[in-house]
Structures
1.
Amino acid sequence: MTAEPHWDHFEDERGLGVIGVGGSLASAFGEAARGLTALVTDLGKVRLRDDAEIKLPGAAPENLLPAWLNAVIAEMDARQMLFGDFELYIDERELVARLYGEPFDPHRHHPAARLKRAVAAPEIRQEDVDTWIVSCVIEVDKG
């Protein structure tokens, strides 16, 4: 049975953690990125009006997850945008992602935290054929 894609958060002494669960590694990475945005604002407030693309070279999943989350944080900072949905393709050669969101509006998005970076030592596991779970700690500035 395929896992219902979802994300969650957890607390860690180094910051706040994001968990992504999906039916594939790509889906779990996308859910972790949705959890990343949810550290900043209510995902329901992010309209999917604009898009951006991220490409990363292939790597072991435990190295690729923090690289992916850091690339999303960098894209948010560079474009001054929030992203609420993600389409990913991952194989041994590369990660290619399309990010959907809108320009950041502090009056509408009411930011709860500022994302700094993904910390190393993520956890990645395949529960069964159709269930992947990934997690990573994110350093944040609250408020």
Note: The radius of gyration is 14 Å.
2.
Amino acid sequence: MDGGHRTRLVFVLCLSAAVFSGIFMGRHLVETFSLRIDLTENKLYKFGPTTNEITSALVNPVTITVLNSEEEYVVMLREILRKYASLSNLIDLRFVDPYENPLLMDHYSQQGLSVELNDIIVEGSFRLKRFSMEDMYLMNSGQTEIRALNAEQQLTSALIYVNDQSVSKVGFSDGHNEQPSSSLLKLFENNNFEIARGSISRLIQDQPSILVIAAPSRDFRRDEVELLQRYLMQGGSVLVFMGPMLNPLENLQELLEEWGIILGREVVVEQEGYTGNNPVNIVPMYAPHEINRYFVENRVFLTMPSTRSLYINPEAGSAYDVRAVLTSTPGSYGKKGFQFSTPAREAGDASGPFYLVLSSLRRITENSKQHNAKILVAGSRTIYADDLLGFSSYANADFLVQAINWLHADETSIFIPAKSIQLAPLNIVSSQALLIGILISIPLPLLILTIGIIVVIRRKRRV
């Protein structure tokens, strides 16, 4: 073997060694330090500041148990769970095959937990929370297609819940044809509230942190209104959704008016800020309010379809601090009576701006202790519709979480938007599609054929 061949051989061996060493070291670094680059379009594996703050603030250990072997588990969720474990030394991630560990299954059964293959159990110092694999995603209305990844919201809120000694309760009133959406209930559940539904008398016995009245169409009895008033005077918080309706709810409206909030008789129509080419689907303005501090730095907007006007009662006593939360623009107008043939502005329509969401706060001193009684009234029930709360382009869920935080003294609710896992479609017109088809079907095959002919001719010349 001459010197040239020997040099080339040494070079090839050194290059091979360098490549294999690089691969080995890279793999070691990835496994040791979780050095991964997120190249997904919507940054599915990148966590937001909320998750980083909560994981860095952990003081009690948390165990995340996945009921499947690590090799068999879904790759996307496996990587997300691994990243959670890398954020804090207090998070212990383990993959357990339930068929090989029947004692662990018995352990969960004894705690009243029914578990299945692929479930995720988050355990803390005070309680545990179970998730199915489906809980990590948002599905379409028919539950046939995955639309978005919701794992960060679920897991981060669970980190708070399992190490929180107290459990907050929310009561949804029943008996007046209330219409809470499944997404509204899920929003409270995701923020670690224990949900109860029932009559006002039964709910108030449990002293919930928040009482929700979700768009009733039947009036409350006088004794129920008295119970609501008593609950408020003990420092309770009430969230009321009241969309446009023909029949007035006199008893409930009387309570709200005492607290400084009047339900108007107009459907608000916008000339500028609206969505879906429908001026009734208004985009409200944020008023200076504690609820809206979040939106000073996060410039996102919500939509309120079919919203009734609200007014501040000038006859309410000075004990009530009534403030605007959301308003319409000065160019808005109101269609009186909730019935109209056209959304276009007509003679006699009331001029805006209007209040769309109002809050009322009363400070109550009892036995040398001060309580803050709060009411928040929204003039729309579609603000919490399933499609709007599941649509990350709108801030409806963000707003409701901030409202919950204001109503709830502990302010522990969080909202992390789900991340779409569907690829954005390539929008091209027909002429562009025709051009692409021509390029693929004619020039490209000709180029390949030409290159082949050139290669054959050169080989024959060498021979």
Note: The first helix runs from residue 3 to 33.
